[in-house]
Amino acid sequence: MADPAVMAGGFSAVRSGGGKATSSPAENYQLARRRTLQVVVSSLLTECGFESAEKAAVESLTEMIQSYISEVGRCAKAYCEHTARITPTLSDTVVTLIEMGFNVNTLPVYAKRSQRMVITAPPVTNAPVIPKALIAGQKRTHPSHIPSHFPEFPDPHTYIKTPTFREPVSDYQVVREKAASQRRDVERALTRFMAKTGETQSLFKDDITAFPLIAARPSSIPYLSALLPSELELQTLEETDSSEQDDQTDSENTFLSDDPGADKENSMLPPGGVVPSVKASEENMIDNPYLRPVKKPKVRRKK
Amino acid sequence: MNRKKDKGFESPRPFKLTHQVVCINNINFQRKSVIGFVELTIFPTVVNLNRIKLNSKQCRIYRVRVNDLEAPFIYNDPTLEVCHHESKQRNLNYFSSAYTAAVSAVDPDAGHGELVIKVPSELWKQGDEMNVLKVYIEFSLDQPKGGLHFVVPDVEGSMAERGAHVFSFGYQNSTRFWFPCVDSYSELCTWKLEFTVDASMVAVSCGDLVETVYTHDMRKKTFHYVLPIPTAASNISLSVGPFEILVDPYMHEVTHFCLPQLLPLLKHSMSYLHEIFEFYEEILTCRYPYSCFKTVFVDEAYVQVSSYASMSIFSTNLLHSAMIIDQTPLTRQCLAQALAQQFFGCFISRMSWADEWVLKGISGYIYGLYLKKTFGVNQYRHWIKEELDKMVEYELKMGGLPVSSNGHLTCPTPHLHFSIKHPHTLSWKYYKMFQCKAHLVMRLIENRISMEFMLQVFNKLLSLASTASSQKYQSHMWSQMLVSTHSFLKSISNVSGKDIGPLIKQWVDQSAVVKFFGSFAFNRKRNVLELEIRQDYTSSGTQKYVGPIKVTVQELDGSFNHTLQIEENSLKHDIPCHSKSRRNKKKKIPLMNGEEVDMDLSAMDADSPLLWIRIDPDMSILRKVEFEQADFMWQYQLRYERDVVAQEESILALEKFPTPASRLALTDILEQDQCFYKVRQGACFCLAKIANSMMSTWTGPPAMKSLFTRMFCCKSCPNIVKTNTFISFQSYFLQKTMPVAMAQLRDIQNLCPKDVLNFILDLIKYNDNRKNKFSDNYYRAELIDALTNSLTPAISISNEVRTVDNLNGDVRLILEEITRSLNMEKLLPSYRNTITVSCLRAIRMLQKNGHIPSDPSLFKSYAEYGHFVDVRVAALEAVVDYTRVDRSSVELQWLLNMVQNDPAHYIRHKILSMLGKNPPFTKAAESPLCNEALVDQLWKLMNSGTSHDWRLRCDAVNLYYTLFGLTRPSCLPLPELGLVLNLKEKKAVLNPTIKPEQGPDTTEMTGITMGGLITMETVSSVSMSSGVAPPPQGLKRKLDSVVGPLGSSSPEPGQVLQEEDTSKKFKIRVRISSAEDEIDMESPHDSQAFIHHHLNILERPSTPGKEPPAVDQAVLSLPVTPLPSSFGKESTSSSKHSGDHHHHHHHHEHKKKKKKKHKHKHKHKHESKDKERDSHAFSNSPASGRSVRSPSMSD
Known about the structure:
Chain A is mostly helical and 303 residues long.
């Protein structure tokens, strides 16, 4: 029993020193079961005609059988719960075995085989004590429409909400104030950061850090940034556009499609007017000299 | 000029142009050059046509052939340098007349031109048979300074990816800048235009695009345009660039072009163009004359709108998205103007400059009709009033604004510093006002003959023209497409049967406006209104008006119109009143428009039934009216008169009546949302003024605050403004204006009340645009403007340096806002950078008021090329202001440098006009800036530096006028007292104090030019001996370092001796010639002239009372040691002018280059550069000389 073993049942791995007695009752319980399994494996090996086995092989086989049995248990439990019960029945186990590819019919024959060895029952050990869950307050009794066989209510602390935060402020003035100061703080922090990390210009000679201005940087194509709406504005536009579509009564308020390429038709909508019916269908048929294909040069014949 | 009363148009040329081909084969964006040819088909109208005069500027002409025969030609452009060899005059009268003469000498309307082609003699005989001549001219343009503008952004990628483009521009007829032509609006012909451009580019030009063909290598394509409608060369244009193409969804003949990435904006901005088309076509009952129309939006545009035959070029800055409110009407107006000019200006052209007013008048008039229809009668009347006021103000200031230079009277215009005989000599402001007056006069004609007849006249002009235009090969018919004052008047009298001669005589031929003063008394006994109307016709810019005038009197019983006759001596007019003075019962009062309203009549005079009186309410005279009536009458007028003009007049008048009643009337108007928004905006400012006058008696919160709170703030928390929606534009405009007006309020200490400032700061703080579908950039910009308005001068304790620590608390808050906004703009730029513009203005205001140190460097960085044009203009305005306030010559130099070198023509123009508006000094005041160097620099600028741009040259003339006046600048030494021996004008006024630093230049030059000095050897040696007299210590250092190695014996031809005679107090200057004069010496003739000229100078009579200058005297006085004190002064000023040195330095180098070219007298910087570069290839190019013959000519 030198190797650490993973216990079945999903319990945490228990590390035990080789040959050392363990004090915890839960561990004793499990060790006893494990020992029984080892005996089972050994007897089966004997039954099969082995005279001796390496310890490591026995350990592996024990591990396998333990996994198998655990899986049968887990699965049977699942089937049982699936049918709204809490205790597995025989049929649950049978279904499980079938599911795991075991031919159930062979089981009675196998059980009654002649050469089988009888092993001693495992020593009786105290079942491990399940630590008592914290109980806070009275459990609720079932209301009349729930049959009493149904599980009890859990502890009240698991479902009773405990208000631990303050009510969000919904006062308009405060919200506006907060939004304003938040925006201002963000803007100030951002511009200060930009000013700190880049070139700056200053209004004062004595303290050039006092009111830092991000240095003016000429751009090659200045009209683009000055004329095109910024992404933020486009976003705003999109939001207001979708939320306030009914408001578009004003003839001036035609909306630009924010995607220049995709939505050609919409953006050309007239202000409050009627779209010329021919337009959409004849888009490709417009005879405009600038849309005509460029001609190939005439081949000059030189003679 | 060329107009005969009875006959049609008579060409000033001995030939008739019928067709012209323009072919541009190559446009190189890298080198900014253009190569091409033109072919003009002309019919001689005289026998033996031996010379053909054409217009061409700055083009390099390689060859000219007439009917395949090489033809000699002469190229002479006198406008390149207006005054040659002129060193002393420096007065504007002289310049103006010389400039007018130069422009006249090449005026196409008089049959002249810069390019004179000699028809080969073989063809003379053919001339008898009046055969057609084909004139073929090959030309190129290299880095054109005018006519064509290249925009080549400095980024990675191909030219198309960089958004490089080129377009033609100019003021009036300027086509000669980019191809040889007859650059007159009266010479029409048909056109074939071909442009070969890179395959990724589009060439947009006049007429129909017939086809686009690839070149053989498939890397370029050729755009073939045909313009079958006879058109003047001046109306031909071109733009080439990687344009995005948008076919108008409503009119497929209309195509819009914009620069890459702007297509979404273009789509939105052009979405209403078809409405304008429909409107004009409907009122004119005439189809748009061309078969297609193109709009092109370009960067760095010369003007916002320029119209050419079948196309218009706009500034790209007119494009906007749907989120922008303020730009929308402006862009529509620009489109409407452009389209109006398509009919009148492009399709219908003019006979001569004197007839220009008709075209500008009609296009302005129909544009006004469009305004009325689209923006409403209020907007229209407001606009008319605005235009009238502007024009009247200009006329009174300038002393008259003749619209037609060719009237029945030859208008003497001695009061103007420019000639109005040519469009190219006009000041830009005059041109603006000219257009303004032209459309106002059209409106007067409409008043006389009715709109119906007016439109019939237009229709007649158009249908005559379109009939004529379809007449092919009958070019004599084409003159029907030209309008003249005479033909216009004839159409009017034919259509309406009315003679409007007197009207034209009064407003077109005669300059000046009418100035009325009105007052009245009510005679209770006779129940008569005694109205007195006086006129001021003695002060400048005014004229006497005789004729009818309409007076509207609002009485208790209604509104009554009276037409009074203004006669020679009658001042008083008795107008019977309809109502009895005692008002009976409570009765509604009928208004002019039929509306009946209840009024609170308690304010009015119990004895009088008069509510208000208006003189000439329809603005049917070009006049200014000052009328006196009681304050309550103005208040009634403001509240109840429905005409916006009357409301605006009363707002203006109420400024003089700071009473609670006025306050109430204004507040009521502000609250009345039926009222025109511009009136309400005006009321805001008036209310602020009244509040300031009533400071001691004012009760309640600051003016407009509670009103604003009620209108725009939240109900639950009145200190917080509502989130922006801007659904109602009227409220939007009011919301924008009110804080700006409120910031003008002042308390007893003359500070902006704390309440108001905090209020504005809160508006900025709580501004929330997240739920708005419109951009709030203009609103935020105006809030910054409001902060600017709230600033008052800092209390300064002596002249301490402004530091952060002694910043006033309020100002600190303001500055914080401004810094944050300006920084945010870098991250999230607003439309047209409106916020940056406002912030720059605010910072300048802070500097000016002494809150922060005055420093132009920030503005200079924003003024650099590469910022958005509005930002640049705002920054430049601040620099201009700084220059004036701090009298900084460094900044002035910097500005003038930019005028010469900036790539954007609009910026150059803007700098000069801003300098003119806010001059660093004026002729009346003394200033350290006013010195010879500056005079010289400006003189050079207008004399030769701006020959590529008519408008810029006139701007320079304007500035010169503002700074120095018409006569010789006072800072120049009196010419009689200076002995100026050289002919080289630039040398003549070199500031003597900077001589030492110029040692190397001048000395080097002397080495080359020694020959030229021979005639004056004696003098120069004398000057040398004294010139090397030990300089005072201040200059010593410079001299040692610069002149030292050359040795003190090296002669300095520009050496100036200055000697202060304590008893006589005048200066004697001796200047020794240098530079180019010896070039002339090479030919015996020139040297004769040279000597002769010098003799003349010596013999020139002096001003009476002053001692005549003589060489003897100069020589005699030379040994006198200069007084150290005078030198000391000079040395300080010399360091100030260090900015000049660079400039002069260039100049000298330039001259050296010139020396290699002995033939060329002409000094033009641009061309000499060309020369140097291409000296091998084009060493004998005729295009650069003044009177250089082409090789074939000299054969």
